[in-house]
Design a protein that fits this description.
By secondary structure, this protein is mainly alpha-helical. Helix content is about 50%, strand content about 5%. Helix 3 packs across helix 5 and helix 7 crosses helix 11. The chain is elongated and about 125 Å long.
Length: about 425
């Protein structure tokens, strides 16, 4: 049986099922509902899909998405779907291209249409048996691929300097610092992080940790690596109000141990910070895309990224990677020492070690233990200031020495 998720999709799905008959009623002006079933016979398609969902144990969030596509489809034609020909399907798809704006939504409606047609009106083999491996002729000609020229670049990419600014903005929120650092490093899904519990932590030699995704993992159970984000884990775990309760959530939204920290909560805080810092607007899911981009640019292989993220193949990498030819060029120039650009000299948000031996996060500037400056530029500035102070004091000392010797000579005191 499918389980509920962080978005409470089960209750939303059950509400749709309960009010199926209302889908045949044309929505009034001002109603939140835009589409309705123009042919009452098509309501049977929703009932059939419900049975298929149960057989396949489809997740509730996918059920809702498929139903949204089906509602659009039954609103786009007055014919019974099982009597539709290719021309009718083409009209539905053409309307989808006019209605949906992004390449992703255009692809989704076609992909969903083909999937549901295959489930509702399957082809039969030569013996009259249902053959689910054959795509029905009515929709066989459709392709979800959309013209690449219509794609637009996302505007939620960060560089290392911007990432450090974002981390420092949350200096008073250790949980948010750890949340950001963990996604960037482990490439974990925001929904998976919402279900992590204290019992899922496995700390090794006080240098790194494994954080097990024991429930609601899209790719099944796995673990998230926590190496460079480990200092932030310690920082948050030290002040976690329910750290002694193994069943408490690792990320919490308020003072209650049963109140999960959701991707929506994270996105609200991230976008507020980005607005204050004048950074690209990022969401909880943007952090994962930035993590994949950093990993690609610092030279990690596709297989390494695949296993880190827990994917079954490397196909997803191109979906998340936001690097471009300009990044590769600057990266190569930086490696050869031909340019000095701190955004391209380092693509690894890695932990730092203070002179006192304290392990610190990649965005930390001052060691909380010995109060030393950590950032290399800050250290250079401090060293330059110290050298200047030494030179000034030395010059003053030499001048005082001459004055003292002159006074001693006037008083007839011998130089001892």
């Amino acid at each position: 049986m499918a389980e509920d998720d962080i978005y409470k999709s089960k209750a939303r799905y059950e509400k749709i099922i309960k009010n199926l008959s209302l889908l045949a009623v044309k929505p009034e002006n001002g109603s939140r509902r835009k589409y309705y079933c123009k042919n009452i016979n098509n309501l049977e398609c929703f009932k059939q899909m419900c049975k298929i969902f149960e057989v396949k144990d489809t997740s509730y969030i996918r059920r809702i998405r498929l139903f949204k596509s089906l509602i659009f489809i039954v609103d786009s034609t007055e014919k019974d779907l099982k009597k539709c020909e290719r021309e009718d399907v083409n009209e539905i798809v053409a309307r989808g291209h006019k209605t949906y704006n992004t390449p992703k939504t255009k692809e989704d409606i076609i992909r969903d249409l083909k999937y549901m047609w295959k489930c509702l009106f399957p082809e039969k083999d030569e013996k009259g048996r249902v053959d689910e491996t054959i795509v029905p002729y009515t929709v066989r000609h459709l392709s979800p691929k959309v013209d690449k020229s219509k794609q637009k670049r996302r505007k939620d990419r960060l560089n290392i300097e911007q990432l450090e600014k974002l981390m420092n903005f949350f200096s008073r929120s250790p949980m948010m610092q750890f949340y950001i650092a963990l996604i960037i490093e482990s490439l974990g899904r925001p929904q998976e992080l919402s279900y992590l519990r204290i019992s899922d932590l496995e700390i090794h030699d006080n240098t790194y940790a494994k954080i097990y995704v024991s429930e609601h993992g899209k790719e099944g159970t796995k673990f998230l690596q926590c190496i460079d984000s480990y200092p932030y884990l310690l920082k948050w775990f030290t002040v976690h109000p329910f750290k002694d309760n193994k069943n408490a959530f690792l990320f919490i939204a308020s003072g209650r141990e049963d109140n999960q920290f959701t991707p929506v909560n994270a996105t609200k805080q991230l976008q507020k910070a980005c607005e204050r810092l004048n950074l690209p607007r990022v969401t909880a899911y943007s952090l994962k895309r930035n993590g994949v981009t950093f990993a690609r640019l610092r030279g990690e292989s596709d297989v390494e990224i695949q296993h880190k993220a827990g994917w079954t193949s490397t196909k997803q990498i191109n979906t998340y990677d936001q690097s471009n030819a300009e990044d590769v060029l600057k990266n190569q120039l930086a490696k050869r020492g031909l340019i000095k650009d701190k955004n391209y000299d380092m693509f690894t948000p890695k932990q730092k070690t203070c002179l006192c031996g304290e392990n610190l996060g990649f965005a930390e500037r001052i060691c909380p233990k010995c109060k030393r400056l950590i950032h290399q530029e800050d250290i250079k500035k401090q060293m330059n200031a110290d050298n200047l102070t030494t030179q000034v004091l030395k010059k003053i000392g030499e001048q005082n020495k001459e004055l003292i010797l002159k006074a001693m000579a006037e008083l007839g005191v011998r130089n001892v």
